[in-house]
Amino acid sequence: MAKNLEKVYEPKSVEGRLYALWEEKGYFHAAPNPDKKPFSIVIPPPNITGQLHMGHALDNTLQDCLIRFKRMQGFETLWMPGTDHASIATEVKIVEQMASEGVTKADIGREGFLERAWAWRKQYGGRIVEQLKQLGSSCDWERERFTMDEGCSNAVRTAFVDLYDKGLIYRGDRIINWCPDCKTALSDAEVEYEEQASHLWYIRYPAEDGGEGVVVATTRPETMLGDTGVAVHPDDPRYAHLVGKNVVLPLMNRVIPVVADTYVDLEFGTGAVKMTPAHDPNDFEVGMRHHLEVLRVLDDGGVVNEFGGAYAGLERYEARKRVVADLEAIGALVKIEDHPHNVGACYRCHTTVEPIVSKQWFVSMKPLAEPAMEAVRSGDTRFLPERFSKTYFHWMENIRDWCISRQLWWGHRIPAYYCEDCGEMIVAIESPSACAKCGSTKVRQDEDVLDTWFSSGLWPFSTMGWPDRTEELAYFYPTNVLVTGYDIIFFWVARMIVFGMAEMGEKPFDDVLIHGIVRDAIGRKMSKSLGNGIDPLEEIDKYGAESLRFSLTNGISPGNDMRYQSEKVEASRNFCNKIWNAARFVLMNLDEDDESPADIASLQLDAADKWLLTRLNAIVAEMTAHLEEFDIGLAAQKIYDFAWSEFCDWYIEMAKARLYGEDAGAKAAARGVLVHGLRTIVQLLHPFMPFITEEIYQHLPGSGESVMVSAWPVPNAAFDFPAQTRAIEKMMELTRAIRNLRAEMNVPPATRPSVTVLADVESAADFEAVASYLQRLSSAGELRVTTDRACMPASAVPCATPFAEAFLPLNELIDVEKEKKRLGKEAEKLQIEIDRADAKLNNPGFTNKAPANVIDGVRAQLEENRKTMAKISERLASL
């Protein structure tokens, strides 16, 4: 077995080679196995339009950590991968590509467009999969799915027909969110709201009988063209005389009724509300209750249609300007007030959406929401952190019917068919060849496609073969954990729970691990418009995959946003180098016959060995507990601290004396424990840093074929040595205190003063047991341990810990006279600076003319210099 590692860890020479080996060996593949417990995760499927971004990198690293951990624990681990067809985003990309060629959808027709879409998917759809592999994601790529593959498409049709047959899917005219740019309906979850500065326009609607009528306030004056009523509160005495009568709609001169409805807020505006049932969801509900006409005055492109009278053909915002100007001209505009309010925008193109009445397909959500809420309420499915369950409940309790039809060509076409002869509608999984009612073969399919999130909602079970009752479905469903960001709880998480309960009769996952957003270094959300995005692939190219992975996981807390800082990636790269160099040290100190791991229990263990073995037990137990609870950030921090400080900085230093000594038994013990410790660290680090740990593991004596399929470490009760652990930890703390004292006094590294340790009886015994380590690690000359304070050397400088005091003779640390002269010169220079600053601050010519930041800087420096002078004076006094 080759023992030596390359001098420097080069990720580029390792990552591709090892990933190919893992795939070749089939380590990522999972299959139902009665001899193992299952552990499964479904990937949040990235869009085929996607390019790996930092959100993907964080999300997939967290999933990979859990999968690798559970794989090593012996579970049959399935990480189901796949991609989403992303109806709107993909169609936009293809239309843009066609536009550059001077071609439109109308030119090539639906079939021609879909040919282009599938070709686009073939060319670009797998790009993000290859990028996930570069990150080290250990998905079961043999099972890769696509939301429009035949299996998922069959699942979509089956679910649609099932819900339709149960009366939970229907088609009707309702208010929906409409994107005038994408020219498609949107669900409530696909609308992003932001507060914008706007206005309230107050408009007088005169009474039909010539009276004053009412004044209404609106944020969208152009929609008044479609007003079919005015609503007031039934308890409002100001308008009681108008209820049941009519007012005249200005500009349109249309007579409209005044109705009383409790929806009206007496305190807002004037207490009278214009009713535009075709363009406002609340107005629509009021209109239904009072049988108001539903008059749509905007077309699909946001342009006033023929019902807009003189304003027909105007774009909505141009119509607004004209309407306001004309109202003012006829004296109907009473006043305009500034008024910030929430404006909805399309989550894809950010165009302001229009609420419009349209014939669409809907899912009746309230009956489906209750079982989904109960799954979380009962604890059957947990949100981690728990606070996100409140977000979930808030949305589910206020849920509206979900508009699932989209006016696009790319996507799952709605499985509804219409007979052109008799008008019969047939909803079926398979396309009918003839009308079931009249036998006509003139049957056409609905033109619309389903909302992308409909197919995504089926993802946990459609990917495992549903509606067929496959072995995979029986074994791996429900899945164990879903890892996702808090920004898609509404879009995806809630809908998966809804569909899981509706179609499978049980939850889709046990736990939902919510992570935050990766923001830039100053806390802004990364976006193309800000130009502050960081390309993960560039970071991988520069630092290596595990440096990026570890920087994204180390110390993070579930549910909280994180700031991306290149310094943290560099620190992770330094950690890689630290582990690599430690591994090189261990391997270079092995004998040629070290081909199998040593039997630790049979070795000549000393206090340092027993301390390390005890600490390994503790870190294994702590990391396992953190990963079981999905606290990945804390687990990463634990192994970082242990590997860097306790193993590399302390144990390796303690082992050196024996490695270079003549005692064969001591040397064998140090080598055996070093290899055991390194192997354990490599295994614990593997979920976070898969490549470097595999490369090191392959070089360790007695290792199996891959760290990925090695057994996750478990605490060994035989390796529990509390007495030696206590002694070593006291020694480490006192060593740190002595090192700090030497640094404060500028003692040269080569100086080895004698050290006297004063401690109580128990601690004195502990220090005696590890005296050789204390002496060497604190660079001491003679070392003496005592319980008698009278034995302290004269003119000694003390340092203390809770368990002991150490005394170092002053004359052995420094040349006192020389140090006094040095400090005296330093004090003289400092006093000159202090006097100069004092003079400036007492000079009105300076304080009156200098900028405030300059004056503050002088004051701050003066304060710092005075503190330093106080320390020098203290030191001189002690000398």
- The Cα radius of gyration reads 37 Å
Multimerization state? single chain
What does the main sheet amount to? Answer: 4 strands, antiparallel
**Structural class, judged by helices and strands?**
alpha/beta
Q: Mean of residue pLDDT?
A: 92
Total number of beta strands: 31
Given the structure, what is the number of helices?
28
Main sheet: which strands, in order across? 6-5-16-18
Shape by Cα distribution: globular
Q: Percent range for helical residues?
A: 40-55%
Separation, N- and C-terminal Cα atoms: 60 Å
Explain this structure.
The two termini are 60 Å apart. The protein has 879 residues and is an alpha/beta fold. It has 28 helices and 31 strands. β8 and β9 (214-218) form a beta hairpin.
Fold blueprint:
Layout: H1 11-25, E1 38-42, H2 54-72, E2 76-80, E3 82-83, H3 87-100, H4 105-124, H5 127-135, E4 145-146, H6 150-165, E5 169-179, E6 184-186, E7 191-196, E8 199-205, E9 214-218, E10 229-232, E11 246-249, E12 254-260, E13 272-275, H7 281-290, H8 316-329, E14 333-338, E15 341-346, E16 354-363, H9 365-377, E17 382-384, H10 388-397, E18 402-403, E19 405-406, E20 416-419, E21 425-427, E22 443-445, E23 449-450, H11 452-457, H12 459-462, H13 471-476, E24 479-485, H14 489-504, E25 509-515, E26 518-519, H15 536-543, H16 545-553, E27 562-563, H17 566-588, H18 607-628, H19 632-659, H20 664-685, H21 690-699, H22 722-744, E28 755-759, H23 761-769, H24 771-777, E29 783-786, E30 796-800, E31 804-809, H25 810-813, H26 816-841, H27 844-847, H28 852-878
Parallel strand pairs: 1-2, 3-4, 10-12, 17-25, 24-25, 26-27, 28-29
Antiparallel strand pairs: 5-6, 5-16, 7-15, 8-9, 8-14, 10-13, 11-12, 16-18, 19-23, 20-21, 20-22, 28-31, 30-31
Helix pairs in contact: 1-21, 2-16, 3-4, 9-10, 9-14, 15-16, 16-17, 17-19, 17-20, 18-19, 18-20, 18-22, 19-20, 20-21, 22-23, 22-24, 26-28
